[in-house]
Amino acid sequence: MKRLFSALLSVSLILCVVGKGDAVWFEERHDYDQTSQSLGGFTWLGEDFVEVLDFRNYFDWYDTFVLDDFDPAAVGINWAELTVTHWGNISTKRRPELWIVSQQATNTLIGQLSPGCLCSWTTDTFSLSDGVISEMMSHNPWQLALILSEETGGLDLLKLDEASVYGDYQPVPEPTTVMLLGTGLVGFAVPRLRKKVKK
User: Fold this and answer.
1) Does residue 158 contact residue 89 with C-beta atoms inside 8 Å?
2) What pTM did the predictor assign?
3) Range of the domain at 40
4) Does one domain contain both 39 and 113?
């Protein structure tokens, strides 16, 4: 019984060591300016930006974050957030404006841009749900395809400075880690086998 307890304890400790500190930070950042967007860019309040402008009642703007630069290689994303820095989204009686951020593939709502301020840029942060993250990882390479939608009547106007997707991920276990875990499992199994042989 003591050997069994010791073996279980050693395996538990190994599993804790394997899981501890494994998460690795990642970030994919899009800095919107005239070189990165076909719509053209300008400078406003000290920042380059792309202007999303349209006179239709319904307007969508698309962007895709491709996550293919994991070092070490990734097994899965633990958590992720999206930040969007913008100017605009200012609603008035004559020109209501409501910008929604969604995941393109499933049309899953991520959040709503907060009302802007004329004097400064506004940064919104959205936590990505497990469903959104699962859909991201269903692609090869992993990616987050966004839609910014404005569905009120009249002029649609939004300035975008930058957006980022970031979080942490679980890397592929290193061979030494796998060996360590295997050794612990063997240490757990051998005493039980010896006990069976003696019987």
Assistant:
1) yes
2) 0.74
3) 23-172
4) yes
Write the CATH number for 149.
2.60.120
The secondary structure of residue 8, as a DSSP letter, is H
Q: What angle do CA 160, 166, 168 make, to 5 degrees?
A: 175
CA 141 to chain CA centroid, Å, is: 13
Residues 6 and 37 in one domain: no
| Residue 140: closest CA among 48, 46, 67 | 67
Distance CA 131, CA 52 (A): 28
CA 125 to chain centre: 11
Q: pLDDT of 141-195, one tens digit each?
A: 999 999 998 877 667 778 899 999 999 999 998 764 444 445 554 555 555 555 5
pLDDT digit string, tens, across residues 53-107:
776 667 788 999 999 999 999 999 999 999 999 988 876 656 667 888 999 988 9
Whether residues 28 and 18 fall in one domain: no
Q: Are residues 44 and 17 in the same domain?
A: no
CA distances from 68 to 39, 75, 99 (A): 25, 12, 28
